[in-house]
């Protein structure tokens, strides 16, 4: 099949319309996993895909699989997609671009009257962000057999609502699992979420893999007391201990070889202006391509937390709550993306993904790769998140043509 192209105006319309679900006043979205906004966006996606002739399958984790049948349904299918949920006051491209890019690929194939050899599956993975229910990449992790379904059902949000009950409440708890069998290839199309492509003047990012990830929760315990009468040298101030830890964690990341360390959530207690804090709960996110260096940074952070607790007269419990190995992508699929971008006249850059994605789990059993497009200003997970419509269309064109090539691979042409 010759090179075909998506319809840029239709892609823009899809992206604009889906951004209305959970829209914020400053142009972003708050569409937390299993919220009403997530339900409404799911309903819209389902309607679009079914109008485009796809079959809909929903598994027991609420993962949505939209299947465009191929000529030979006995062949291993090709999958693409991403996630619909967002961060609080997040952006309108993160995750959803990969689903809508897959939808537009289906529509472009319909326009061309093309039936591919293999089934094409576009997926919406449940709870990738992990902002409401932790850990993230929940739906893809269970699908890949790496996370326990019942344990994920038991996850609670800050209001005590469980993942399983909320999944049922919004009507997306499927009755059975969807098993498409071994997959031929998997692609995830996504915004970069960093500044590299824009700074280098590149349209397409071709990551060789996803960095490893380590999440920690730290619980500091001091002594709550009155802010006025308590002398400075007699305080066991949990916020003071936290401040010293956070500063040192930043310095450790800064001094490392390509590892990033982030303090994200901070929850002091009692959180009153005239009370010395007795407790602080905070989180640490550590990521890097080199797992040995990443684990060295983690060990140094653990030592620092213990030392800063000791010198401030507090105690600190550090729990490792999530750990994911780095995910090197399949080299032939990485080359396919690079070559396809070149055929389309699009400048491409080899890189790594600093953000985690659902592909980190799917990659463990299915040949996988990702396609990036630039994030303006390198901003993501924020309302200002932006990618130009031209770049959105360019990345969707690369995705479409990679899907055509892999879906038309003959029987026996599997990726070893």
From TrEMBL:
Annotated Zn(2+) 2 binding sites: 94, 129, 381
One Pfam entry name: Peptidase_M20
Cofactor stoichiometry and binding remark: Binds 2 Zn(2+) ions per subunit.
Cofactor: Zn(2+)
Entry annotated with the keyword NAD: no
Entry binding sites for Zn(2+) 1: 83, 94, 190
InterPro entries: Amidase_Cbmase (IPR010158), Bact_exopeptidase_dim_dom (IPR036264), Peptidase_M20 (IPR002933), Peptidase_M20_dimer (IPR011650)
UniProt entry keywords in alphabetical sequence: Hydrolase, Metal-binding, Zinc
Any one GO molecular function term: hydrolase activity, acting on carbon-nitrogen (but not peptide) bonds, in linear amidines
Domain Peptidase M20 dimerisation span(s) in chain numbering: 214-309
Keyword Hydrolase in annotation: yes
Entry-linked Gene3D superfamilies: 3.30.70.360, Zn peptidases (3.40.630.10)
Record PANTHER family: ALLANTOATE AMIDOHYDROLASE, ALLANTOATE DEIMINASE-RELATED
Family: Belongs to the peptidase M20 family.
Full protein name: N-carbamoyl-L-amino-acid hydrolase
UniProt source species: Pseudodesulfovibrio indicus
């Amino acid at each position: 099949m010759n090179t075909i192209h998506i319809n840029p105006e239709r892609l823009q319309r899809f992206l604009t319309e889906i951004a209305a679900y959970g829209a914020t006043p400053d142009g972003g979205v708050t569409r937390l996993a299993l919220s009403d906004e997530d339900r409404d966006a799911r309903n819209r996606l389902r309607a679009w895909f079914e109008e485009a002739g796809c079959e809909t399958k929903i598994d027991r984790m609420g993962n949505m699989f939209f299947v465009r049948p191929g000529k030979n349904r006995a062949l291993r299918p090709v999958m693409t997609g991403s996630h619909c949920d967002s961060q609080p006051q997040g952006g309108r491209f993160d995750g959803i671009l990969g689903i809508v890019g897959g939808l537009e690929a289906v529509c472009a194939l319909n326009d061309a009257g093309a039936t591919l050899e293999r089934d094409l599956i576009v997926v919406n993975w449940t709870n990738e962000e992990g902002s409401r229910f932790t850990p993230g990449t929940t739906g893809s992790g269970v699908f890949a057999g790496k996370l326990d379904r019942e344990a994920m059902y038991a996850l609670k949000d800050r209001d005590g609502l469980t993942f399983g009950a909320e999944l049922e409440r919004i009507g997306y708890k499927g009755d059975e699992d969807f098993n498409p069998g071994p997959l031929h290839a998997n692609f995830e199309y996504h915004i970069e979420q960093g500044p590299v492509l824009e700074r280098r003047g590149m349209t397409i990012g071709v990551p060789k893999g996803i960095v490893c990830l380590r999440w920690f929760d730290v619980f500091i315990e001091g002594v709550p007391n009155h802010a006025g009468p308590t002398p400075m040298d007699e305080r066991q101030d949990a916020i003071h201990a936290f401040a010293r830890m956070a500063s040192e964690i930043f310095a450790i990341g800064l001094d490392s070889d390509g590892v990033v360390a982030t303090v994200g959530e901070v929850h002091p207690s009692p959180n009153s202006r005239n009370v010395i804090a007795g407790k602080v709960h905070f989180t640490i996110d550590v990521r890097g391509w080199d797992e040995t260096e990443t684990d060295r940074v983690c060990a140094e952070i653990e030592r620092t937390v213990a030392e800063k607790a000791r010198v401030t007269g507090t105690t600190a419990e550090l729990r490792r709550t999530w750990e994911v190995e780095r995910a090197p992508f399949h080299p032939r699929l990485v080359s396919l993306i690079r070559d396809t971008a070149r055929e389309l006249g699009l400048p491409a850059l080899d890189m790594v993904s600093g953000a985690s994605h659902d592909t980190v789990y799917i990659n463990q059993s299915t040949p996988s790769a990702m396609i990036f497009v630039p994030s303006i200003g390198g901003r993501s997970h924020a309302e200002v998140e932006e990618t130009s419509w031209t770049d959105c269309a360019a990345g969707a064109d690369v995705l479409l043509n990679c899907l055509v090539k892999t879906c038309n691979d003959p029987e026996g042409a599997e990726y070893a």
